[in-house]
Structures are given as C-alpha cells and as structure tokens.
UniProtKB/TrEMBL annotation:
It comes from Equus caballus (Horse). This is Polymeric immunoglobulin receptor. SUPFAM superfamilies: Immunoglobulin. Keywords: Cell membrane, Disulfide bond, Glycoprotein, Immunoglobulin domain, Membrane, Secreted, Signal, Transmembrane, Transmembrane helix. CDD domains: IgV_pIgR_like. The chain crosses the membrane at residues 637-659. InterPro entries: CD300_family_receptors, Ig-like_dom, Ig-like_dom_sf, Ig-like_fold, Ig_sub, Ig_V-set. The keyword Cell membrane applies. Pfam families: V-set (PF07686). Residues 14-120, 464-559 form the Ig-like domain. SMART domains: IG, IGv.
Length: 762
C-alpha cells in the first residue's frame, strides 16, 4: 500500500510542483484562407537561447507530433506555408502559418528542448470559414465587439406573417431571440433589432451590435409558423481578437497602453481583468476609480487619449487576460473598440527580491533598497509617494539629483537618495518618522519600466535605537561635540556622521582619514559616536546625521540640528553644556536620595519613645534625671542649629564627590561571544537621556551568550546577593557619595529623636 502511494505521489509531484516558464497565446481564432503568427516566450538563459524550439500538434493519446522546429525540420503538411524564427536576444520565437484551412483547427504546443518534457505551452487554434454560403448555410465571421447584419429571405406568401429569429442549442432545440411582434430576449436587450423594409420586400435583417462571445453559434431565421413558414440557417462566428502577449517576472512591473482611437478620445476608459467566470473585474479607469486588490500597486495616466496603467510588485494571481475599453461610466463592458492582453507571470524569476513592507517607529528611520536595470547606470532615479490616483498619483519626493524643491518644507533634513552605480540598486533613507509617513512609496527610473517597485511603510510602536539631542546651540568660533549613542547590537556595524543638504548627505572624515574642521571619532568601548566641530562658523549650521551600516547596506540613521549663534547670544560651548548637564544630574541625585530616606522603610527613622536605658547606648549619653529643664532646652537649640549646618556641609561634599565621579571610568565588563570590551557608562553626557538607572545595592553583571549566525550579546543588570555567600556590591564614586549622605541623614535623625524623647544629662 505504501509503495502504491509513493508511486502515485512521484507521478503527480512533477506536475503540481513545476510550472512551465514557456508562454504563448492560449487561443487563436482565424478565418480560412488567411494566415496567423504564434509568438512564444521563454526565459532568455544561455541554455534556452541555444536549445531546440518546436511547434507540434497534440494527438488523441497525448503524443505531440513535430510540425516544424528550429533545427530545420518541416513536416509535409507545412511545406511551403510555414516557418519558425528564433529571437534569442528577446527570448521569443515566432511560428508563421499561411493558407489556413479548417483542418488546421486543433490543439498544439510551442516549446523548448525535447517534446513532452514540460518546457512547453498549450495553444488552441480555431479556423472558421469566411463569410458566404456554405452547404446552404449563410456563414458570418465578425470580430468581438463589432456589429453584424444577417439577411433572412422568405417568400411572398409569408409577407403578412410574423418574422422571428431563434438560436440553436443542444438537442436541436431553438430558443427565440427576437420577433416582429415585439419580443426580445434578455441577453439581446438594447443590442439586437429586426429591420423590415416595407410590405413588399421578401427579406428582413437581423442586426446585433456590440457582439459578445456568447453570440457565437447557429441561428434560424423564420417567417410564418413552424409548419408552413420559411426558414434559413445562419452560422455566426464571433472572432476573439488575438491578445497582445505580455511576459513579466514575478515581483516586477508591467504597463498596459490602451489606445482606442480618436472616436472615443473623450469617453471614459477602463482596464479590467477577466476571471474564470468570464466576467471582467475593474482594475482602474480614467475617472479615478481602482480595485482595492491593486491598492498602492497601480499608477495610471491619460495623455492624448492614451490610457496607460502600470502594475508593480506582480503576483501569481495577476496573470491572465486583460481588456481595455471605453464606457461613459468607466465600468467594464465588452464593446468596440477594445484592446486585449494576455499577461504571463514567470515564477522562475531572477528578478531581485526585496521586502514589500518596511516598518519604522516614530522618531526613527527606514532605509529602502530600490532595484534598477544595471545596464541603465545613468538613468534618473526617483522616489515618490503613492496617493489616491483620483488626486495626484505619485508625486516625486527625491531624485538622484537631489530633493524635489516643492517637497523641501516637509522633508527638509529627513530624506536622501544614495545612488550606488554598478550594483543595480539605490538606497532611499527617510528619518524623523511621524505617523503621517505611513503609506505606499514607489521606486522609479526614467528607463526600463519593468524594474519599478513599490514598498509599504508601516509605523509601529517602539523607540529609535540611535539617540542624539534634537537641537544643539553653539556660538561662533567655539568647539562643539555631538554625541550619538548606539546600542550594543550595532557593535560590529560601521558608524558614520554626515552633513545633510538638499543634494544628499556628505560623509564626514574620520580621524584616520583627515584632519579637517569636522572630525568623527567612534569610541567602541562606550558605544558613543562623537562628531567634533572645531571653530564653528555660520556655514556649519544645519542638519547632521548619525548612522550605522552593515556592510554596504544602510541600516538606521538619526538627525540633529546644529544652530550657530552670534557671540553672547548662544547657549555656550561644549563645557557649558556639560556643566549644565552635571548640575541637573546632581540635583536629580539629591532629590532621589532624600526621597529614598523618607519613603524606603529600610532607611526610615524610628520616632517611637525609647526606654532610658536603651537610649544610653546611643552615640549621645542620656541626660541626668536631676538636671534642670533649661539645660535640656539649650541642648535642643544647639542641635537644631548644628543639624542644618551639617546638612549643608554634607550636600557640598556630595556635589564635589559627584563632580569627581564624572571624571572617573566606571567600567563594567560585558561579553560578546568570545570577545570582551569595556563600555564606560560615565561617558554619557546625561544618563537620563539614555535611560540609565541608579540601581543601589546592585552591580552590572555580564552575561555571555552564543547565538547561531551573527554575533549577538545580552547585557543584563542583576542582583549579586546570594543565599550562601553574599558578595559585596561594587559601587562607583557617585554611589558612595549617595550612601554617605544617606548614612548622615540617618544619624542626624537618630540624634534628634534621642534628644527630644530621652531625659538629658548634665
């Protein structure tokens, strides 16, 4: 049983797992005596270009007999009337067949390589007789969407009788379509009519306008009743227009150019996709309406009567027949004139893959990689934002020549396009993201449209990884240092600073590369990227970007604005910025310690009454029971004077201690796989800016982690207290000063409580 199952699975698997990349017209309708051309596409690989091309006819048992091939073979049936031409540069070959006969109708395959090996495409050819009389039957052959006028003769005996037309269906049953008494079938309402010229004419005409595929078939014209009436047979062939073949790769773009002629230049145009039920679903029209399934993926324009629609990020379900037509309400309707396409989406594509969705956080950035044809290095690249096509389509934001002028106000300091000639890609970076930036964006060039692409930007919750101050003020002639903090996950990335202009973002030299006015210094130990601007001039004012790159790909960026002020009007140079930050940190630390003394139950002062004997064991001796009350009051005055003075002195000691601590390196050790590095947390300009916490009684503990793939690390802060053998926590100078101040407050409160609640001794 298992063997039988495996045999069936192996037999079915090649069919369901592989789709042939060969593509051609699925159906061809031609009239007898005319000629036809069958164009077949194949992937233009080196092997396919030089492989055998063939055209064969399928037999009843599945075999396919070769009629003509690129090796020079021609069957007897095709001698003198068929040829096959290969076009390897475009990946196509064409089969031309002349002097068609009805016997040529049937099923065929166009393919590459050996017959019946899967690299082929099925084609159905139908050859119908031309208009005229064939074996007593009138034959009409008209194009889809056109108009036909069928002549129905009768004898004079039936002049006063009813005239009618019916359509034959299975079992020779004939359903009435129209008659002279006023009846008209629902499928022919508004399209069909009978024309009877006078009372002496022995001929009436059956006219059908806007021919549909369903109109194809056999009809019977009748004058009089079924028993004695005059009847004539009609064979109507509605010829489908041979669609234009469109071959595109999965994920690429395609364009439909609909040119219907001057007679409908002012009529609304539509493009629709035909489904399996033979209904045509709207894709887009000139009235600004579009299908939600194509949201963000279509661009349209209507210039000089030509309606053009670009579809990008092609999917498998986009393959199939498309139809363009004209209708006053812009809704699909099979009419004349019309234009048809057959789209094939090649799933075995070499088109560069890329994410169709990028995510960013408010205040963060995104870097979008855009492909273009590597042969068009000098083409103009651009990036536009897709909008409702009823409004403005996709207005460009930035080009390879710089930021578009009318977008300067909204994207000043935020947007740049990096053109990287040679590798077939360019990068667009957008930072300082807001919730309003969410939407669809297109990568465009003025060259090959097949390389156009779209990306959707989504704004999600989170915080930017890179951190800088939003604005830095500096006075003319001073030196300023811009500090950019990057998380440890960017340790191995390349860091950079650049100055933004509307022409791009020019990289600033590192210390090893030059000694200009602007110098970049990246301290790997502290994960700080510092940009120093010396002797600042007015020309140094503007936007500066800090960013990271992984190899050649840009990852994240962040922007800071440097405002240059005249002497005496600015906020000071680098030292004043640091001093202000130090004062803020000292004030915060003092408030924090005072709060902990009041709120933490471990540091609370016991104010309950004590036994005199217990009080005697304190740092101040108990008062003599026989001493006077005046002496107790004097002691209280002395203590109330000394305690505030001691508090002031302790605060001064704390300030000095904190300032000294800022110049020390409080080095904590972390591990990155088998490598170790020192990260100095005291290098931060202000610990509050980077989310630092003062965890009293706890020390940073390194946690070494090995993950598959790229090097990663996790730095955690844990409590070092153990149940068996407690370890002494390592404290910085700032922590020691805080603890000293806490101890002093405890001692002072204890003294005050003892003096107030215990008897005083002389």
């Amino acid at each position: 049983m298992m063997f039988f199952f495996l045999t069936c699975l192996l037999a079915v698997f090649p069919v369901v797992s592989m789709k042939s990349p060969i593509f051609g017209p699925p159906e061809i309708d031609s009239v007898e005596g005319t000629s036809t051309s069958i164009k077949c596409y194949y992937p233009p690989t080196s092997v396919n270009r030089h492989s055998r091309k063939y055209w064969c006819r399928q037999g009843p048992k599945g075999q396919c007999t070769t009629l003509i091939s690129s090796n020079g073979y021609v069957s007897k049936d095709y001698e003198g009337r068929a040829n096959l031409t290969n076009f390897p540069e475009s990946g196509t070959f064409v089969v031309n067949i002349d002097h068609l006969v009805q016997g040529d109708s049937g099923s065929y395959k166009c393919g590459v390589g050996i017959n019946n090996r899967g690299l082929s495409f099925d084609v159905r050819l139908r050859v119908v007789p031309g208009s005229g009389v064939l074996n007593g039957t009138q034959v009409y052959a008209e194009d889809l969407g056109g108009k036909v006028s069928i002549s129905c003769p009768f004898t004079s005996a039936n002049l006063p009788n009813v005239k009618s037309v019916c359509k034959q269906i299975a079992d020779k049953h004939c359903i009435r379509v129209i008659d002279s008494a006023g009846y008209k079938g629902p499928n022919y309402e508004g399209r069909a009519k009978l024309i009877i010229q006078g009372t002496t004419q022995t001929e009436f005409f059956f006219v059908i306008d806007q021919l549909q595929v369903e109109d194809d078939g056999k009809y019977v014209c009748q004058a009089g009743d079924d028993s004695s009436g005059d009847k004539s047979n009609v064979d109507l062939h509605v010829l489908k227009p041979e669609p234009e073949l469109v071959y595109a790769d999965l994920g690429s773009s395609v364009r439909f150019d609909c040119a219907l002629g001057p007679e409908v230049v002012n009529v609304a145009k539509f493009l629709c996709q035909e489904n399996k039920e033979k209904t045509c679903n709207l894709v887009a029209n000139t009235l600004g309406q579009w299908n939600q399934a194509f949201k963000g993926r279509i661009l349209s324009q209507n210039n000089n009567g030509v309606f053009s629609v670009d579809v990008t990020n092609l999917r498998k379900e986009d393959a199939g027949p498309y139809l363009c037509g004209a209708n006053s309400d812009g809704q699909p309707r099979k009419s004349r004139p019309s234009q048809a396409w057959q789209l094939f989406v090649n799933e075995e594509t070499t088109f560069p893959s890329r994410p169709s969705v990028v995510k960013g956080v408010v205040g963060g950035s995104v870097a979008v990689l855009c492909p273009y044809n590597p042969k068009e290095v000098n083409s103009v690249k651009s990036w536009c934002r897709w909008e409702d096509i009823q409004n403005s389509g996709c207005p460009p934001l930035v080009q390879s020549t710089g930021l578009v002028k009318n977008q300067y106000e909204q994207y000043n300091g935020r947007l740049v396009l990096y053109d990287e000639p040679g590798n077939g890609t360019y990068t667009v970076i957008l930072n300082q993201l807001t919730a309003q930036d969410a939407g669809f964006y297109w990568c465009l060039t003025n060259g090959d449209i097949h390389w156009r692409s779209m990306v959707e930007l989504k704004i999600v919750e989170g915080q930017p990884n890179l951190k800088v101050p939003k604005t830095v003020n500096v006075e003319l002639g001073e030196t300023v240092q811009l500090t950019c903090h990057s998380p440890c996950k960017f340790y191995s990335y390349k860091k950079f600073w650049c100055k933004w202009t509307d022409q791009g973002c020019s990289a600033l030299p590192s210390q090893d590369e030059g000694s200009g006015q602007a110098v970049v210094n990246c301290d790997q130990n502290s994960q700080l990227i510092n940009l120093t601007l010396k002797q600042v001039t007015k020309g140094d004012e503007g936007w500066y970007w800090c960013g990271v790159k992984e190899g050649l790909q840009y990852r994240e960026t962040v922007a800071v604005y440097v405002a240059v002020k005249e002497k005496g009007t600015g906020s000071g140079a680098l030292s004043s910025v640091r001093a202000a930050a130090a004062e803020d940190e000292i004030e915060t630390s003092v408030r924090k310690v005072e709060s902990e003394v009041v709120q933490d139950p471990r540091l609370s002062v016991d104010t309950q009454e004590k036994d005199p004997e217990d009080a005697a064991g304190g740092s101040i001796a108990s008062a003599d029971p026989g001493s006077s009350a005046g002496q107790g009051g004097s002691s209280k005055v002395v203590v109330s004077t000394l305690v505030p003075l001691a508090l002031v002195l302790a605060l001064g000691v704390l300030v000095v201690g904190v300032l000294r601590a800022r110049h020390r390196k409080n080095v904590d050790r972390i591990s990155i796989r088998s490598y170790r590095t020192d990260i100095s947390m005291s290098d931060f300009e202000n610990s509050r800016d980077f989310g630092a916490n003062d965890n009293m009684g706890a020390s940073p503990v390194s946690q070494e982690t090995t993950l598959g793939g790229k090097d990663e690390f996790i730095a955690t802060t844990e409590n070092t207290v153990e149940t068996e053998e407690p370890k002494k926590a390592k404290r910085s100078s700032k922590e020691e000063a805080d603890m000293a101040y806490t101890a002093f407050l405890l001692q002072a409160n204890n003294m005050a409580a003892n003096i107030q609640d215990s008897p005083s001794k002389a």
